[in-house]
What we know:
Chain A has seven helices and six strands. Chain A is mostly helical. Chain C: It holds the Pfam family SLD5_C.
Amino acid sequence: MAGQTDPSLSIFSGEEVEFMAEDEMVEIVPNMRMDPLNMLCGDFGPFYPQMATQVPLWLAIAMKKRGKCTIRPPEWMSIENLTRILEAERDSQAAFQVLPFHYVEISSLLFEYAPDDIPDIYMVRSLINDIRDVRFHKVETSLESFEEAHSSAVMVKDLSAMEVNLVRPFVGRALQAFYKHGSPELVPNPDGMSARRLQATDNIPRIDWNKFYIAYRLLSHAL
Amino acid sequence: MANYYDIDDIIMEQQLVPVVFQKAVNGVEIDPSAETDYVEAGSKVELPLWLAYELHLKQVVKMKVPACFNHRTKLELGADGAAVDLRSRCLYFYEFGCKIAPLIGDRDMGSFLLSAFRTRYQQILAKAHNAAFTAPSKLLSFLTKEETNLYEAAQSSMAAFKKWRIGGPRFERASVLGRKRKSTD
Amino acid sequence: MDSGLDSGLDSGSTEDYETDVELLKRAWRQEKSAPEILQFESALVRRIVEQIQLMEETVEEFTDSGIDPLTVSLYQMDLDRTQFLLRSYFRIRLQKIEKYMFHIRDNAESHLSEKEKVFVERCCADLQTHLEKSVLLQLPSTYQSVFRQSSEKETDMVPRPHLDTFVVCKTNASQRPLDEPFEMEPNVLYFVRYKAVKKFVEEGKIDLY
């Protein structure tokens, strides 16, 4: 399937983070009757016209695409709430407001698949974009000074899934460098070199390798 | 733990270290222009780290501080860390520093590397996210290997995020995945 | 979604309200995040495979008995999602095995499923034969090892997972990582060295993200 990541780069691709977000529950209002769905991931329904019910986001989108329901945007996506959050995000340099862990993915999916179910969608979209930008900027600023904390760990309180995923490759590497340079291994220790070594075996047969190797071989003979 | 097959680690150990021979050694041609195959005690030469290390263990040579960790570099890094071109001095500045510190008995190396990295890392971070799609700046040409990796890590995850946001067909099924495992075709 | 995850991953306790799919998703996330190979979730995988087979049969019956195509396609999506998780879980483990085959064979074989054990043996044998035939047997006898640079040394040529990798994780109850001077607050994400939380990850007390 698309979107698999190279494990050495970042752990989760954007698509994989989205995949996880698609299991979040949302409220839908069906316009048809359907028996309960007893699925691997849980039991949902029964579905009756005009009767709101909770389903995972992927299921909501699948039904919506086929014109079988409307999706009720979650409460946190109201203009009042988003306006309040945006102000608070701007007011505080350090703290992050509490938003759903998958707010970036959920809102992005709803904008794409259920635009007609979101009142004032332009306003909502621009508020969420602004919130996201303010938060990303704050993440960067906090990263610039994070080594002031204990460099062996960093708390990322109230960051969302996508935000964590975005900074993960950089923060992981940087912390590793901080950790390595602060490690006690740097105090003098003649056996500290654990890497690749040529062995000092006697009677090494002649091999034309390179200049350094020959020099080494002759030296170990000479001693 | 160092990885035996790590190409960066291998290249890093090719970094030259100035050494002074503590003993005279026969049958060695260190300097191709020299006429004899004899090295006197007190001779100064530069050897790759992996070789210098072995000889150091056998107390044949004594290692000197490599130029990239000399007093002047330390002063420059202390004054304006982000502006120093470390790449031209040593592509593997930090890794080399970590390896060499115990061998030359430099107890301050760790904290020196840490503070150099700290100042420079802030610059890298700012550049990496702001200059997401613009031409690489002068800063990039100053970066060591590890710093470049860091920069690229930040940039590529930002680019991946933007790509995700712009979207495209999501979760297209490869045709092979639709088939049932049991079907016997 | 991720709040209140229980530690009883493999217990299958009846009070556990989580579905096996949720447990699989968690196992998948842990496996993707951890630098080393984790214990194979044999009981969970067995249950999931059974459920997938049952569901495949059900979907086939639905199709044959003329249930409306919408319902069938929704069940099919549910199936696809679960199979994606399972395949990705297997795949990430195979990638780790290929990367650290000698290390895993000698140190972590008990973490593998029966099929993975066969796979790791094959991998090791093939790679070793290949290296010997193409290079090593041409070298002097002291240089022929795939594992060590010299006979008195440890197996210093074997690639191993880097346990100092920083991972993102969360704990349900206050937890002090090993060798770290701080206490992790519950339900807050941290970047921490994997080595410092490895024990708790294995015990299911700390979750990787």
